[in-house]
Amino acid sequence: MTTPLAEVASSPSTLRAFLHGLPGVDRVGADARAAMLGTRSIKTTAKKQAIDMAIRMVDLTTLEGADTPGKVRAMCAKAVRPDPGDSSVPPVAAVCVYPDLVATAVEALAGSGVKVASVATSFPSGRSSLEVKVAETSLAVAAGAAEIDMVIDRGAFLAGDYLKVYEEIVATKEACGRAGGAQGGRRAGGAQGGQGAHLKVILETGELATYDNVRRASWLAMIAGADFIKTSTGKVSPAATLPVTLVMLEAVRDFLAATGRKVGVKPAGGIRTTKDAIKYLVLVNETAGPDWLDPDWFRLGASSLLNDLLMQRQKMATGRYAGPDYFTLD
Amino acid sequence: MFEYAPAPESRDIVDIRPSYGLFINGEWVEPQGEERHKTVNPATEEVLAEVAWAGEADVDRAVQAAAKAFPVWSAMPGAERAKYLFRIARIIQERARELAVLETLDNGKPIRESRDVDLPLVAAHFFYYAGWADKLAYAGFGPDPRPLGVAGQVIPWNFPLLMLAWKIAPALACGNTVVLKPAETTPLTALAFADICRQADLPPGVVNIVTGAGGTGAALVNHPGVDKVAFTGSTEVGRLIARSLAGTRKKLTLELGGKAANIVFDDAPLDQAVEGIVNGIFFNQGHVCCAGSRLLVQESIAADLLEALKRRLGTLRLGDPLDKNTDIGAINSAEQLAKIRELSEAGEAEGAERWSPACPIPDRGYWFPPTLFTGVAQSHRIAREEIFGPVLSVLTFRTPAEAVEKANNTPYGLSAGVWTEKASLMLWMASRLRAGVVWSNTFNRFDPASPFGGFKESGYGREGGRHGLEGYLAL
Fold first, then answer.
1. Are residues B384 and B268 in the same domain?
2. Is A49 close to B2, i.e. CB distance below 8 A?
3. Which residues are named in the active-site annotation (chain B) (predicted)?
4. SS3 state at B96
5. Which terminal residue of chain B, N or C, has fewer Cβ atoms less than 10 Å from its own Cβ?
6. Residue B338 is part of which domain span?
7. Average of per-residue pLDDT across B182-205
8. A6-316: which CATH architecture?
9. Are B232 and B327 found together in one domain?
């Protein structure tokens, strides 16, 4: 294991000492900072730029018990060509599905450049054995998933068993690499090149509850080798929030400064409007910095957001709002 | 790159008259003298309007109007006075956008601050003291506390309308009448407030507004018909007022300068501390009497904190105050800019190291980039004198006792900030800092229910909260 800072995970006590030695987060201050950045006024050319940027960062997601191959194929078509009437709309970054639907998505997206992400490790609760989690990851990667969105064991984290969480992430990372990313593809860049599937680690911040925990879990995941840290499964309320994302952006910024390794951030769940998405982009711009404003380093996990982005994009171009029936439901 | 397009707030909402008279006895009147003064937009040097400079005769007229209104206003049941104050508060909320734009035009502060800080606090202050007007008997000053009479109030240019609210709201709630002089460079929102008094049908003479400079202020505070003087401004002028009022029956409250310490311990929540430092000294271009102008940082984390702070200063957006994305606006006047420059040059001459982020400065108007001084010693002028600008002096300490010693080692004592995650240390510090307000893991937070005022040369008396009533009651 050559991950930077891996030595802090040499024992439960060193890992605990490291995580508890991180600077605390003052909740009131973090909330105030996120709220202030939420007042930035992004208009005209900046809004156009932000909308296209946001579209390119979307991980278009369906994670329902009722998902079918037909539903996934429809979503893939939308991912490649979000607005059938306007070819200037860029494709989204990836689609995100359950492991058993990865093959369907890979087939539907072949040659498109849109990546397939799969949740794994007994999503969303993470309550299973390590063997099952690793096997599930391997299957998803073997089916062609270029990205794996794993969940951490929140129970272990809250019980203070940080090393267990660490070891699960390391094992999942290994499973991502072992199976070898079948997709890779021409859009592969940044941290992705030739390393097998890209690992996004879901912290489920709604269950971690405190910002101190969010900061510790972020560092824990990064030390264990996460390529991305992701807020939420979307199955727990609250899902992504601005202040939680702020704390995670501070973590990736500081991790890069400390280790030289850059990690991406993905807020997911509850981001439904263009206005919300733009607030996240401002947060990235003024916290981690403009270097993160790229689909390789920042994603938005969402489903209904895309249509609002399309609607606002069309409004910017034509000056008029079209009704919801002018945007496809997928 | 993600460049924010200009997002200026429209100035169409404000209607600035070419010229203003004085507001006396509920009417706009012309001054007796000829002297007039142009008020400019400090961001562009554009002339906004001409205002009258009231002379002694005008001040006398205003004080007489206030004295004439006093018997009626003070005899009115508190619940009735409250109705007027509530009405004023609601009109301020309704006209908040207009007043915010006007404040930004006249003062140079960013619209984000006038919109999100000044105006909400102005309205809150009137609402808060409206609530006291019929409860004075329960405020702890005896069963029937009486007002003083005519209050002569002189306010500064840094928070023009907010300082007006801090002065007028408690005065009226207690049953006093008022003659207020706004600062010479920022009279416009006070003049708009005169219109609000008319809109609220406030009885004539209860509030009078006389514009002018130091001479007008001196005429007001020295007028024999004034029963109470409230002044916010420099320690230098405060001292003059205290001297001239000594031996008179006039009650005096002074809210003066500061050189506050913002103290960061090694266990502080670092990212929020950086925000607090920025908010402490760069909020309102540092034109804040309680600004955290001295950063005292524990030496063991000084390098990390400074690096984070410099990175953060690089993201501050300086420019058009009306742009909704502007963080740092214009310096209020050429005179103030000269003072900031002079002290900054003194800082360099005395051996401190000066740093500013790369920051384009507009061609016209009065501007000063956010500035840090490191290697500052207690003996340097920039560690002792109030700069009243976006200039932060960074000093280090080793132990909590040293932090207290250095923080208190100033002629001022208006505010302080402490950053630590350790509650016992926070309380230990708070009980030893000689400052009117000690902020815990935050800075520059205000609330009408919280008393505000200084120790030592920062003045005496308290404004805000129940304590703020005391200065306007005969006790």
1. yes
2. yes
3. 255
4. helix
5. N
6. 261-440
7. 98
8. Alpha-Beta Barrel (3.20)
9. no
